[in-house]
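About this split. The held-out portion is used to measure sequence recovery: a designer receives only the structure tokens and must propose an amino acid at every position. Recovery is the fraction of positions where the proposal matches the reference. Here is one held-out target exactly as it appears in the evaluation file.
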């Protein structure tokens, strides 16, 4: 009787999930993924007998067919089992093995991980990617490593590998010419990655301001800017470090833009978005938090309207939104704040970024990219801007998060699936991840020093 009740509960939950997908998800049609077949397959699995945790996993696999970087599923439990006993970070096409405390590489002269239990790390990621949205390649890789790979025994079962109380790995040196195989005891729980680097805002030697924003939460990010920008007034340059910043709010962008724009700069339009129409969404769905409005909004000045019109002339979206399903285009316009305490910082500015930059940080990077004196350095950002909403599936504990908007960059590409490209591509050396050497920061300091000459 319990199993029948559970089945009925899951079938009802699947019905509500399907309705949400078809009627409210902004990225439902973005990549022509087939959702009908896997939903039908899941319906049959439920009738044959499925646990609630298995149901959550199957829902996650279905939304992973899309490109929505914000999409995820909560409310299910992982089975007990051994976990990976070290951290793995990715830079470009290489994987770096790091001790859990980040005080050293797993093996000092052999930083790069090539195999786990005899299988190439890329093969592990290939299996794991069934649970990861088909966003940008760098975001898929990041999600595989940070959220999933640690569940070693779970993926061993998926890959038909034996479960053991140890794990055998192959690592290689920097040149890739020497290999070493080592065996480690598995961990009892997945390890936490945290936000890296652990640095704080400061005035660096050479009279360079260093502004560290580890998140885009309104209060903390705005306060950090307000605290440090007055101290940087006489600096010869500034580094803004948003590496590993996975988003929050857009207020930090609006404030820092005010410092970087001159009084003569015209309003800046850099993104367009539309929300999926649904009775639950108000006409001003993109106003609060996103600061986006339609071109006929009473909010705009004549200069704003001219900037929007200029943006529209060059804007050609890569995905044509389905007719009748989306709102009119909305635009975000950056203006210089007239606050008398805000000055024009007209010295070189280097922004440090990586693939863990996401959501509001994608917007931050896109908003500043191309400004005079501003250069983005590092690796492409994760790519995501979806105005996410969460909902519970019926009476089950499963909660799904999906995007409500389709958000585009000025060159027409979606944020989801692409991310923001740096002006200068530069990957971290392995020593960065243990605090020994920050080669990206070093390059930023050199760039500012060269600009002073």
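Reference sequence for scoring:
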């Amino acid at each position: 009787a319990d199993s029948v009740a559970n089945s009925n509960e899951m079938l009802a939950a699947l019905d509500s999930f399907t309705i949400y997908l078809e009627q409210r998800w902004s990225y439902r049609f973005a990549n022509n993924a087939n959702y009908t077949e896997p939903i039908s397959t899941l319906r049959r699995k439920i009738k044959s007998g499925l646990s609630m945790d298995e149901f959550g996993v199957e829902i996650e696999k279905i939304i992973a067919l899309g490109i929505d970087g914000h999409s995820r599923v909560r409310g299910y439990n992982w089975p007990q089992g051994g976990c990976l006993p070290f951290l793995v970070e990715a830079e470009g096409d290489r994987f770096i093995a790091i001790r859990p405390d980040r005080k050293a590489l797993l093996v000092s002269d052999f930083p790069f991980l090539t195999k786990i239990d005899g299988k190439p790390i890329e093969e592990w990621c290939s299996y794991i990617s069934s649970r990861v949205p088909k966003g940008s390649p760098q975001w898929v890789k990041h999600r595989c490593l940070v959220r999933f790979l640690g569940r070693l025994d779970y993926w061993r079962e998926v890959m038909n590998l034996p479960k053991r109380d140890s794990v055998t790995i192959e690592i290689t040196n920097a040149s890739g010419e020497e290999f070493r195989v080592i065996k480690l005891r598995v961990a009892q729980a997945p390890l936490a990655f945290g936000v890296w680097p652990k640095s704080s805002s400061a005035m660096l030697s050479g009279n360079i301001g260093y502004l560290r924003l580890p998140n885009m939460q309104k209060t903390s990010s705005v306060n950090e800017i307000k605290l440090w920008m007055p101290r940087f007034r006489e600096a010869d340059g500034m580094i803004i470090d948003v590496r590993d910043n996975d988003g929050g709010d857009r207020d930090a962008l609006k404030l820092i833009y005010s410092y970087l724009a001159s009084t003569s700069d015209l309003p800046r339009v850099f993104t367009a978005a539309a929300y999926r129409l649904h009775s639950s969404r108000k006409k001003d769905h993109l106003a609060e938090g996103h600061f986006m409005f339609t071109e006929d909004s009473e909010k705009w000045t004549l200069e704003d309207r001219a900037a929007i019109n200029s943006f529209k002339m060059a804007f050609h979206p890569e995905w044509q939104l389905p007719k009748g399903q989306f709102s009119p285009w909305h635009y975000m316009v950056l203006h210089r704040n007239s606050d008398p305490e805000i000055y024009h910082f007209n010295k070189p500015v280097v922004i440090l970024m990586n693939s863990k930059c996401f959501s509001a940080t994608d917007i931050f990077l896109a908003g500043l990219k191309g400004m005079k004196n501003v250069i983005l350095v590092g690796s492409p950002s994760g790519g995501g801007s979806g105005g996410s909403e969460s909902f519970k599936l019926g009476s089950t504990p499963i909660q799904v998060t999906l995007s409500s908007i389709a958000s585009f960059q000025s060159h027409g590409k979606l944020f989801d699936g692409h991310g923001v490209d740096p002006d200068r591509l530069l990957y971290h050396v392995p020593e960065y991840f243990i605090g020994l050497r920050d080669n990206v920061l070093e390059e930023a300091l050199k760039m500012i020093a060269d600009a002073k000459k």
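Annotator remark: The two ends are 79 Å apart (CA to CA).
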